[in-house]
Design a protein that fits this description.
Blueprint: H1 2-9, E1 19-23, H2 35-39, E2 46-50, E3 58-62, E4 91-95, H3 96-103
Antiparallel strand pairs: 1-4, 2-3
Bound molecules: iron/sulfur cluster (2 copies).
């Protein structure tokens, strides 16, 4: 399913997400048990890589082609509600136009 999902996201999407999750420098990797990955509903959208500055630790990366901007990986929901995502404020939800200005236009 993840492969099919990924293939789908590599072609034109029907709708762009409004927001994109971007991991910031505060990511600790959660000692190998990333809460964000357990909360993300899209298979393989978030994955671990070695932290280049501290190779014994991992960091999480978001695949921008798979992120649907659902906010489930963060702790701050609408109207200041609390969600069960990253406890370290290590994920920024960025409006897609800002994301594209910085990282280039997404192929969807
Ligand atoms: S916003 Fe949603 S889809 Fe994107 S990384 Fe977070 S939980 Fe996954
Ligand atoms: S983004 Fe947050 S929840 Fe995910 S691994 Fe990093 S610190 Fe942990």
């Amino acid at each position: 399913m993840a492969v099919a999902e990924k293939a789908k996201r590599n072609v034109q999407r029907k709708r762009k997400p409004k927001l994109m999750a971007v991991i910031n420098e505060a990511c600790t990797g959660c000692s190998g048990a990333p809460i964000c990955i357990t909360e993300c509903p899209v298979d393989l959208c978030m994955y671990e890589v070695k932290n280049p500055h501290a190779p014994v630790f991992n960091l999480v990366v978001v695949d921008p082609l798979l992120c649907i901007g659902c906010n489930k990986c963060v702790t701050k929901g609408p109207m200041d509600t609390l969600l069960e995502g990253c406890p370290w404020d290590a994920i920024d939800m960025i409006p897609l136009d800002e994301y594209e200005e910085k990282y280039g236009v997404m192929p969807y």
